[in-house]
């Protein structure tokens, strides 16, 4: 599985804040899918292991394990309570598949 975002770092004026809805898309590419699967995405504050968002469950189907199933998931507003690491964690029927990490930096830290 490939998880790709359009960014790896977000610079904000101050926290807490939010990252605007639909300002980015999470790209998922699944390979070697051998059965239909329900998958879900969680947005997690890694510093305290707190799930901030739980995305709705998506159904995944591939006619053959040789196909690549691609999805572009528009992101809702992302709550950013503090600077630090965050992750998008992907699960298939509660089994962990992968993660994409991003870092939130306050503008004064970036200088």
Characterise the protein shown here.
This protein has 111 residues and is mostly beta strands. It has a single domain, classed as Sandwich (Immunoglobulin-like). It is 4% helix and 59% strand. It has one helix spanning 107-110; strands spanning 2-4, 9-12, 17-19, 25-31, 37-45, 50-54, 58-60, 68-74, 78-80, 84-92, 95-106. The strands form three sheets. Strands 2, 5, 6, 7, 10 and 11 form a six-stranded mixed beta sheet that branches. Strands 1-4-8 form a three-stranded antiparallel beta sheet, with no helix packed on it. Strands 3-9 form a two-stranded antiparallel ribbon. The longest helix has 4 residues, at 107-110.
How are the SSEs placed, and which strands pair?
Elements (H helix, E strand, L loop, with lengths): L1 E3 L4 E4 L4 E3 L5 E7 L5 E9 L4 E5 L3 E3 L7 E7 L3 E3 L3 E9 L2 E12 H4 L1
Parallel strand pairs: 2-11
Antiparallel strand pairs: 1-4, 3-9, 4-8, 5-6, 5-7, 5-10, 10-11
Calculate Rg over CA atoms: 15 Å
- How many individual domains? 1
CATH H-level homologous superfamily name:
Macroglobulin (MG2) domain
Distance between the termini: 35 Å
- Estimated helix fraction: under 10%
Q: Quick one: biggest sheet?
A: 6 strands, mixed
Q: SSE string, helix = H, strand = E?
A: EEEEEEEEEEEH
Q: Which CATH class?
A: Mainly Beta
Name the average pLDDT: 88
**From the helix content, strand content and strand pairing, which structural class follows?**
mainly beta
Low-confidence stretches: none
> What amount of the residues lies in strands?
over 45%
């Amino acid at each position: 599985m490939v998880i790709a975002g359009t960014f790896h770092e977000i610079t904000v004026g101050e926290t807490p804040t939010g990252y605007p809805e639909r300002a980015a898309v999470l790209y998922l590419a699944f390979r070697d899918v051998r059965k239909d699967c329900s998958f879900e995405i969680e947005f997690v504050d890694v510093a305290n292991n707190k799930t901030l968002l739980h995305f709705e469950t998506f159904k995944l189907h591939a006619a053959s394990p040789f196909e690549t199933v691609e999805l572009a998931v528009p992101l809702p507003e992302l709550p950013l309570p503090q600077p630090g690491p965050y992750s998008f964690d992907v699960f298939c029927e509660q089994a962990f598949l992968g993660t994409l990490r991003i870092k939130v930096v306050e503008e004064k830290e970036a200088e």
